[in-house]
Amino acid sequence: MKTYSIATIPGDGIGKEVVPAGQQVLAALASSSNTFKFEFENFDWGGDYYRAHGVMMPADGLDALRNKDAILFGSAGDPDIPDHITLWGLRLKICQGFDQYANVRPTRILPGIDGPLKRCKIEDLDWVIVRENSEGEYSGVGGRVHQGQPIEAATDVSMMTRAGVERIMRFAFKLAQSRPRKLLTVVTKSNAQRHAMVMWDEIAVQISKEFPDVKWDKELVDAATARMVNRPATLDTIVATNLHADILSDLAAALAGSLGIAPTGNIDPERRYPSMFEPIHGSAFDIMGKGLANPVGTFWSCVMLLEHLGEIEAAKRLMLAIEQVTANTALHTGDLGGKATTAQVTQAVCDLLVSRATSLTT
Prior knowledge:
Largest sheet: 10 strands, mixed
Distance between the termini: 22 Å
Radius of gyration: 20 Å
């Protein structure tokens, strides 16, 4: 029997509720399997750790994660700690430290969920957004001078490298090639950003020649937002820079019904380091501790984790259970207009996994 070592990092806010829910679901899935099991190790890094130690995670924290098969992450964000400290001190430290350069965000309207696009058919919105996850606008290059003075100046430099752009473009084209429509949209802003984004466009043309069976087009990021709303069926796989994809993927999640259902994977495609999977919602301190958080985004992230581990059938089983639960509006949490609790949704998914496994063995 295969044993997978999984690091769990709940982080802040509702991350402390949805990550244990994800662990519970994975454990239920493993209990009904005779081919794999999980060993979990929890790390209490985040805002509380910062208050006690002055850092979001220990200096040698990456070494504690390095040999794990995958990481399940909750959220980073605390109302009493500046956002740049919580983000750079934990999530980005892991993403950049393990060169998880491909951020993958699938989006579709799940059964039972009423998306805001009333003219949109369910099959019209089925996207995967590929976000460059290691450089660009979040490279950390820049600084501030003359702080507090009238002449104060601050810069954030969008740093793009040929190697970084080539590898994310190649990843996106390969992903598009694996999907039925073989369709890719390259998001840009080269009309205004005339250096790095022009290089981005040029490299897209170069890499496209390696994938002659992939149909692709180019869209300015502002026009892409309108296209997502007005012509969702014309999109399939989307690749964009760190900042552009960060914004577009939140729009995509909202169009699919809620940020609470949206998953993401921070992937090291070369598998040199563990990849990290997380829901895209924030720490949501306003509902923390009330049992109201939607765990579906975490469960879908667990599906991506299973796929990354090669447990394809288990991933399909979990996704089917998720869809059966979302189809039941009585199990919708508040973000979807319902009154269900985190625990109720979690238990419903676990029950389906166990009952289906029982029916398969009887």
